[in-house]
UniProtKB/TrEMBL annotation:
Keywords in alphabetical order: Hydrolase
Entry keyword annotation includes Amino-acid biosynthesis: no
An example molecular function term from Gene Ontology annotations: hydrolase activity
InterPro entries noted in UniProt: AB_hydrolase (IPR050471), AB_hydrolase_1 (IPR000073), AB_hydrolase_fold (IPR029058)
Pfam families: Abhydrolase_1
Domain AB hydrolase-1: 42-269
Transmembrane segments: none
Full protein name: Alpha/beta hydrolase
Source domain of life: Bacteria
């Protein structure tokens, strides 16, 4: 789908042999290794920052998708991160992709790590943002933090991503407003808007993250692909210190970027810089 934008690209569907139908969007130049974007807790196709996706798609093919049981995909959400990794690998397989680059944000970064352990030869380059290693410090508290911020969002009539993704400084508040404006462009799509995740699916994802955070750490020493690791310096959901730095230490072929005065959604708060870094990294 060359020469289109994320707000206009159609939603497509593809059916797997196990009966699951995946919803996805596909844009950018089809030549070369595609970038598969693996998304965060509770997210559907309309939760990707359109300016970030468009910036990446100017240099390569970009594919976003709904996990099974989420948005417009059928099936049931797995209750383990490893299950979500297998689910994502299944989607990539039925798309007939033999080599991909991977972008994993937040829970998606956890899923990507498990994908690399399950099928290490698949990925050429890997980008991990706002995430940490299995068993990382504080990851088991994501449910508690998410529930508290959800209550706050309900009572204050604000979007939960305002506090989960961004700092409470003036810069962070301004960035949050701009980010939410960009997401509204996706929600104003005249057709093929995605479905909001169900409450049951959301709780199953939270259960998977909680289990993963309490699980035994994985051995990431066998991952040899180039990895770009990014986060804000104040991530409340997956604490930057020590998790982001631990990932960098464990992944020996990795580069680390920490954005100042930024939170969990640092790559959206610093979208133009992230897009530039990501495109240069993927072109190496």
């Amino acid at each position: 789908m060359k020469n289109t934008t994320y707000t206009k690209v159609p939603t497509q569907k593809i059916r797997a042999n196990n009966g699951v139908t995946y919803a996805y969007r596909d844009l950018g130049d089809p030549v070369g290794v595609p970038l598969v974007a693996v998304t965060h807790l509770s997210a559907n196709l309309d939760n990707w920052d359109p300016e970030v996706i468009d910036g990446l798609a100017r240099h390569q093919r970009v594919i976003t998708f709904d996990y099974q049981g989420v948005g417009s995909s059928s099936g049931r959400v797995p209750t383990s991160i490893q299950g979500m990794a297998s689910d994502t690998l299944n989607f990539i397989k039925i798309m007939h992709l033999t080599k991909v680059n991977l972008l994993g944000f937040s829970m998606g970064g956890m899923v990507v790590q498990e994908m690399l352990l399950q099928q290490p030869e698949l990925a050429q380059h890997v980008i991990l943002a706002g995430t940490g290693p299995r068993g990382g410090q504080g990851i088991e508290h994501v449910t508690k933090i998410s529930d508290l911020d959800l209550l706050r969002a309900i009572f204050t009539l604000t979007d939960i991503k305002t506090t989960l993704f961004f700092t409470r400084t003036e810069n962070g508040k301004t960035s949050a407003k701009q980010f939410l404006k960009r997401l509204k462009r996706l929600k104003r799509r005249q057709q093929q808007r995605d479905r909001t995740i169900s409450w049951v699916a959301y709780r199953r994802q939270l259960k998977a993250i909680n289990r993963w955070g309490r699980d035994k750490p994985a051995d990431l020493s066998g991952i040899t692909q180039p990895v770009l690791i990014l986060n804000g310096d104040h991530d409340r959901m997956v604490p930057t210190e020590p998790n982001t730095y631990d990932l960098h230490r464990q992944l020996t072929n990795s580069q680390l970027v920490i954005y100042p005065d930024a939170g969990h959604g640092g790559i959206f708060q610093n979208g133009p810089d992230f897009v530039k870094r990501a495109n240069e990294f993927l072109a190496e």
